[in-house]
Amino acid sequence: xxxxxxxxxxxxxxxxxxxxxxxxxxxxxxxxxxxxxxxxxxxxxxxxxxxxxxxxxxxxxxxxxxxxxxxxxxxxxxxxxxxxxxxxxxxxxxxxxxxxxxxxxxxxxxxxxx
Amino acid sequence: xxxxxxxxxxxxxxxxxxxxxxxxxxxxxxxxxxxxxxxxxxxxxxxxxxxxxxxxxxxxxxxxxxxxxxxxxxxxxxxxxxxxxxxxxxxxxxxxxxxxxxxxxxxxxxxxxxx
Lengths: 114, 115
Prior knowledge:
The complex is a heterodimer.
Chain A: E1 3-5, E2 10-14, E3 19-21, E4 24-26, E5 31-38, E6 44-50, E7 56-58, E8 64-68, E9 73-78, E10 87-95, E11 103-104, E12 108-113
Parallel strand pairs in A: 2-12
Antiparallel strand pairs in A: 1-4, 3-9, 5-6, 5-10, 7-8, 8-9, 10-11, 10-12
Chain B: E1 4-7, E2 10-13, E3 19-25, E4 32-38, E5 44-51, E6 57-58, E7 67-73, E8 76-81, E9 90-97, E10 105-106, E11 110-114
Parallel strand pairs in B: 2-11
Antiparallel strand pairs in B: 1-3, 3-8, 4-5, 4-9, 5-6, 7-8, 9-10, 9-11
């Protein structure tokens, strides 16, 4: 079975700082990778996803993530964060075929200080 | 993007009673719906997968007699927590997808408190 680790539980940054949230997964086969954001009181929203091709994926709201297969990582990045990026961020993985179940990391709470 | 609506968003019930949570796909037909449970400061844990017209597939450790899932139509799945107890208090989230290899859309979640 697959597993996902997000080592940063809470990250606090000032506005305009650069962001990188870590995500590592464990699975023996090929996977699809996702980053979701959950604003307070709202549903999970897909930021970006990687299925295949260019390992550098660009998503909404200026976010990007890079799949490094050798490191089993899919870190989320943003060059300059804004106050409205304050939220909870979840990394998720699903096997590329067969059992199409999303496995989520524990999430990272991002707090941006104005 | 597609919209998935969960109802209610919050519910408080007495211990021993049953609670039904609805998950609706508003603008697409969801062949598969998923139910998750999220504990504070923890990840979303998949409880079960339901396909329209068939019995739900439960994850290991999830009591199917306690968490009844019905997916009777392509736009509605329900989760009924039967004989709820305080330890069932949690945040329950559903997601729906139109078909294999399509994006899953999430409901806003239901905060269940059992007193």
